[in-house]
Amino acid sequence: MEEKEMETKRIIPNQAGYKQAGDLLANGGIVAMPTETVYGLAASAYDDAAIARVFAAKGRPQDNPLIVHIADLSMLPWVTSQVSEQAKRCAEAFWPGPFTMVLPKGERIADSVCAGLDSVGVRMPSSQIARELIRAAGLPLAAPSANRSGLPSPISADHVLRDLDGSIDAVLMGPRCEVGVESTVISLTAHPPRLLRPGAVTLEQLKTVLPDIEVDPAVLDRPKEGEQVASPGMKYKHYAPKATLIMVEGDREQYCRYVNEQADGVAVCFKEDVDRLGVPVYCYGASDDGRTQAYALFEVLRRLDEDRIEKAYLHAPGQTGVSLAVYNRAIRSCGYRKVVL
Ligand code: AMP
Ligand code: MG
């Protein structure tokens, strides 16, 4: 069911603003907040009715669980029933930051947050604004990305308003997100531990703490029809602009030649190749720098729609470091369409 049109408040992140937004959340409200990864749509993780409003505003499938955000380690026992030595080591290494652990679900967490699973995804963001808001609410906050389900994630307050103005109570008007793609998600309820979604905390970094971590097959490929997936979110069409996006895998020379031969689209390319292409270009970072790719990807995908582009050829990023996260989002944005040169 669609949420009824309402006035969405624009709240400045200062002391008065945190109090106003925190009170909204404590009273069943839903508020978009900046984090270092993407903007999140927050609600009390204890409040089933508020969580139902989050799913409705986003049009999110009910079986896709939400990540719960905490401000500091003292809140961890509010969210999970059991903190293993392994979880402690990961928290020490990667929190606060773009890193989510799936842990045994705490009793007070609303069932709808976890989509009926007995586990919960938990993250402590490094964004000071997000943590001030969590403290002001005095609650763990469940927060999926603050976009309409299926569209590219929002990395600015403006993106949030384009998708959700009139459907949510407020937006905390923070800065553009620094990372630009969602958090790394690992499961510690799986043995050995499993990477469910790559992010800015890289597989290489994870291996320093969890040497036996395995990569879920859904990170790189389309989950098979009817197959059980460890992270329900992985099975949905995701991050997709209206344009038909095609991933092109090959070296720089091959990519440029291929795109120049196609008369019908634009290039979503790396900055080194901007001058070698005879079609309109949308640059998403440097070919050897995953951080710059992550920073730019969702903004570029949204610009394709603003410019009413119908077809675009995206140069495939690598699959190491932060580029693994970029590849994971990009291949979904392409609906798994890929040309290998
Ligand atoms: P989003 O909130 O849009 O960033 O998506 C959250 C991601 O975390 C989705 O891919 C979910 O499937 C995954 N996730 C959250 N909680 C769990 C959980 N308890 N078990 C497995 N995956 C989870
Ligand atoms: Mg999302």
Strand content: 15-25%
Q: What's the assembly state of these chains?
A: single chain
Shape: globular
Low-confidence stretches are none
Task: Give the ligands present.
Answer: adenosine monophosphate, magnesium ion
Taking all residues together, what is the mean pLDDT?
94
Distance between the termini: 44 Å
**Element-by-element helix/strand order:** EHEEHEHHEEHEHEEEHEEHEEHEHE
Query: What strand order characterises the main sheet?
Result: 1-8-2-3-7-4-6-5-9-10-11
List key phrases describing it.
341 residues; alpha/beta; eleven-stranded mixed sheet; five-stranded parallel sheet; 16 strands; 18% strand; binds adenosine monophosphate; binds magnesium ion
List the helices and strands and how they pair.
Blueprint: E1 9-11, H1 15-26, E2 31-33, E3 40-44, H2 48-58, E4 67-69, H3 76-79, H4 85-94, E5 99-104, E6 119-123, H5 128-137, E7 141-142, H6 157-164, E8 170-172, E9 184-187, E10 194-197, H7 203-209, E11 214-215, E12 244-249, H8 252-261, E13 266-269, E14 281-283, H9 290-306, E15 311-315, H10 323-333, E16 338-340
Parallel strand pairs: 1-8, 2-8, 4-6, 5-9, 10-11, 12-15, 12-16, 13-14, 13-15
Antiparallel strand pairs: 2-3, 3-7, 4-7, 5-6, 9-10
Helix pairs in contact: 1-5, 9-10
The structure holds adenosine monophosphate and magnesium ion.
